[in-house]
Model the fold of this input.
Amino acid sequence: MRIVGLAVIYLTLISNIQYSLTASHSFATSLYDRLTTYNYSYIRPESDLNTPTAVGFKFFLVNLQDLDDNNSKFSVTGFFEIKWKDNNLTWDPTSYDNTDSIRIPSGYMWKPHLLVGNPYKDAIVISLEQSTIRVYADGSAYWYPADSYQMSCDADVSYFPFDSQTCEIWLLPWQHDASEINVTLTQTTVDLSSYNQNPTWDYVSSNVYTQSSTNGVHFSMKFQRRPTFFMINIIFPIILLGVLNVFVFVLPADSGERVGFSITLLLSIAVFMTIIADSLPNTSSPRLSSVVIKLSVDLIISALMMVCTILGLILHHRTDNVPATGFWKCFMRFRKCFLNCRKSKTNAVHAEKNKIPNGIVLSDFANKTDENTYGKDEKQDGVTWKDIRGFLDKCFIVFFSSILIIANLGFFMDIVAGIN
Done:
């Protein structure tokens, strides 16, 4: 008898569950038929059509597909939350088995016509007839159109590769003016609950605001470029080429490799300029990129180094039968004065170190030896072209090294100022 009783209870529960499921489905079908039969998708859901319909907007960013600053293209994947209240779609949940919400195909009810105001190429209309709209018993309607959107975005690459770009989606009510739709914001920032990180760009911030003149809503997003790849593959080789350029004056003049070395480095910088030009937009607004300016400066410096190298080789290969002119003699006298001043300072330091209590200086003999050595040089009136070229190389090393240090410091200071 106990087994029979349990079986009866089990069958009763199963029948009640099946009845409840059947009843819920039938109530949902009845509610769906009621809501879709007498609803008109082209008439705003207001009792008084002189009253604008309040439409709220929110954007969920899912993925940053591409931010192509060269072509000014901004591509994202995401979906909007668009909500409003339809006063014609209300019901009492208790009359429909406590059904408090239902999904209705978007083609069977009114929804705002929306257009992306800054498309990259073709016009983007937010329609998606195959999507559904969730309607609640109080008439609240929630629509979630999702897609991949391509917008135009004017890039500012002034501080590439340490730049940040601010792009936006401009959503504009289409075929509706401010007297018909009142645009409101559900959230003042983009929702990142479904966002996946991009390997090239870091999400920084966002801002959502309305524009009264067009009755549109702007979803503005800021992304920061990850510079590590470009630092290793572009910035570091550029600086290294500049350092190598100076060593052209260290190569022996008789080796015959100076001109070839300087031309190779000049062409390398030109190749880097081509690579950078292909990666950046063809515009100088608001200003040229810092990398482009640095490459241009390095190219000019490299060209000047090549000219100086050729000049030095011309002087080096002049025969001693051609006497040095007055300019070059004055140039070499400056060198001798410089060496004598340095020698005097060195001797003074040694004399101070070697002085003993009785006042005798141990470096007197060394001074006499240096005087004899340098005295012979000073008495020599002949100046060879190789001597002139050797001193020129030293001057060029100091001069161009200073120029490169100043150029690199200016580049990094400009980058730091732009980041801050």
User: Anything to note?
Assistant: The domain at 36-226 is CATH 2.70.170.10 (Acetylcholine Binding Protein; Chain: A,). The mean pLDDT is 78.
